[in-house]
Amino acid sequence: MTRRKFVRKILETWPAAGVVVSALARKASAQKAKLRRFVRAHPMGWYPGPVKPLQDIHKQSKWSG
Amino acid sequence: MKVQCELCPKICLMQPGQSGECRVRINVDGVLRTVVYGYPCSISVDPVEKKPLNHFLPGSVILSLATVGCNLHCKNCQNWEISQANPEDGTAPAEFWPPERLVAACRQLRCPSLAYTYTDPIVYYEYTYDIAKRARQAGIRNVLVTAGYINEPPWRQLLEYVDAANIDLKGITEEFYRDVCSATLKPVQNALVLAKAAGVHVEVTNLIIPTLNDKPEQIRELARWTRANLGAETPLHFSGFYPRYQMRNLPPTSLATLEDARQIGLSEGLNYVYIGNIASKQGQNTYCPACKKLLIERSGYTILQNRLKDGRCPDCSREIQGVWK
């Protein structure tokens, strides 16, 4: 392919590429709008695992720290 | 709807039903929920020296709690059974303890302070915050034991209710934080500086892991950073590593390495450098930086003698930074 043909091909496909890019940008912006940001979480109100009693709290913990 | 948690620098993006890296903050129908609020997996009365805090109410007991979950995944974690647990698996206990019950227990057990520890209080932020607020109103002091991996706005808000913190500075390179902890260094350094600036009593812990962060030049750089950014009066604890979790291939840290680290810390101008997780005669004691006399003698978590008089050396009257009463 000559350089001239290559440049012509690019110019021919440019509008199509523009359409794809703008569609992708629209999609990304829509997804961004759907995103909700939080710093603080709301308490769930219930525990998702089994609720089991703790060990004797008067004793020193086996965990580090 | 997707949810982004902006509590810590991980900034987890969660699809509905997904949790963040900490395993305890979940996207439920487009709302960020904490599943561990009010459900600690451990509550204990510990000596304050165990946190470790050597300049905060020495010899006192501290009501210490944790929920499961952590935003770091350190390969050497000593508490991985709870820090890396999924709440729904039921491998760790969980009992309902609303904030007011904890504060009441603290009073009943005559603990002058409460510690948020064992895992990382950052991931149970809302629970920590609510307890800390109530505890402060009740005249109880709040202590955080944390990796300090949190974003600045929530950190500043929490610090308003914090009296003391032991913050891990796990290494002094981004590579160490990335490879060993799946985190980054800068936010931790920022958290340390902010805590100090907020007037919180800060002590720093560095766990020395053979071959990974035990080179004298790394220890020197860490001590230098601590002195330059937090001040010479900041206590620094060099802790011994034990093979745990995903790092069972390395030997425990030798006493010699920890003693060398202590000497490096002192030579860099830090006034209080301690050795932890291993028996050490001098490395556990507090000495006056001016006249070098023994001030607080410790054996493990036990105070053998405390010669401080109103927070000062009884021999030369030099002020020793800390919270003594």
Structural descriptors:
heterodimer; A: 65 residues; mainly alpha; 1 helix; 2 strands; 49% helix; elongated; B: 325 residues; alpha/beta; eight-stranded mixed beta sheet; three-stranded antiparallel beta sheet; 8 helices; 15 strands; 26% helix; 22% strand; globular
Outline the structure in words.
- The complex is a heterodimer of chains A (65) and B (325).
- With 65 residues, chain A is mainly α.
- Chain A has 1 helix and 2 strands.
- Chain B has an 8-stranded mixed beta sheet.
- In chain B, helix 2 crosses helix 3, helix 4 packs parallel to helix 6 and helix 7 crosses helix 8.
- The radius of gyration of chain B is 19 Å and the shape is globular.
- Chain B is α/β, with parallel strands linked by helices.
- The chains are: A mainly alpha (65), B alpha/beta (325).
- At the A-B interface, strand 1 and strand 2 of A face strand 1, strand 3, strand 4, strand 5 and strand 6 of B.
- Strand 1 of chain A pairs parallel with strand 1 of chain B.
Summarize the entry for a quick read:
The complex is a heterodimer of chains A (65) and B (325). The radius of gyration of chain A is 29 Å and the shape is elongated.
Kindly name the structural category of chain A: mainly alpha
Contiguous runs where pLDDT drops below 50 for at least 5 residues of chain B: none
Q: What's the pLDDT, averaged over the residues of chain B?
A: 98
Q: How far from one another are the termini of chain A?
A: 70 Å
Number of helices of chain B: 8
Relative helix content of chain A: 40-55%
Largest β-sheet summary of chain A? none
Strands across the major sheet of chain B, in which order?
A: 5-6-7-8-9-10-11-12
> What is the general shape of chain A?
elongated
* Computed CA radius of gyration of chain B, to the nearest angstrom: 19 Å
